[in-house]
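Collaborator request, handled under Task 6.
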Amino acid sequence: MGKFRTLVEEVSQKYAGIEFVYGKEKRKSAEQRELEKLQEWLIRWEGYEKQLVIMGKGRNSYSRTDQV
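Structure tokens returned to the collaborator:
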């Protein structure tokens, strides 16, 4: 997890000077698309980590009603 977060932070710093565009009829740069995808993956990864904590080591599935 730490390595992935570090990668996202490095890419964010690398592309700090890029102007982000949003809305209709505006094309995103390849760098903006890459950064947004990495940020989405990081959010997903954090969700998976949370699910693994809830599930614990002795189980291979869990219910939505399980709590930490």
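The cover message to the collaborator said: "DSSP finds two helices and no strands in the chain. The longest helix spans residues 30-55. Please let us know whether this matches your experimental observations."
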